[in-house]
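sanity check both lines:
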Amino acid sequence: MKRIVLISLLLALSVPLGATRPGKWYDHLDYGVEWGYTASFFEAYHYNYTSPSSGARIDTRDSHLSYKSNGHIYGFVGAKFARRFALDAAAGWAGLFESRRMVPLTLRGSYFFRGYDRDGWKLFAEGGCCLGESHAGKAVGIARLGSGYRVMLDRNFALDLSLSLHGVSDHPTNVYDKAREEAIPDASLRRSDCNYLALNFSVALSF
């Protein structure tokens, strides 16, 4: 999974620029910084482990609404082409859920209804993996799908306000089984799967 994402990021930086409108080469670059707030509202988990207290094999799963507040900050770079599209590689620091922080590495595609150099609405989709510790070294996936509005502050300087649905497929280590009120070290885990859903509000400056 990580290899696929890395290859995709390299491809994002090598998108042909011949289809773009005439201009200086740096007019076709898309780069900037984004920060935002993530409101997690749903958690589903499946743990299988050897209980540290009783030595019994436990298999537990549940799904429920659970509100957690997190934030993120990303840097991104990529290419703008065909007047309405942008393809960016993004990386940063993000909170995934309660006490869970990782480094996302993603690829993001955006479509601007009136063009990337004009005020107007956009749609975007983003996906990739998160770098950090996970149970059994499994890949942690992250994805976003949303919409936003671009405000041009100058010819090559834009402010983007976005709202998106945010999903994470996680495999945390050293988890806590709330149902049985016991901490589970990674050495006792046989399975650790968690899925989260959240709403994400972000502000980005693009150059």
Observations:
- The chain has one domain: 2-13+26-193+202-206.
- Confidence is low (pLDDT under 50) at residues 2-22.
- The chain is about 5% helix and 65% strand.
- Residues 138 and 171 are 7 Å apart (CA to CA).
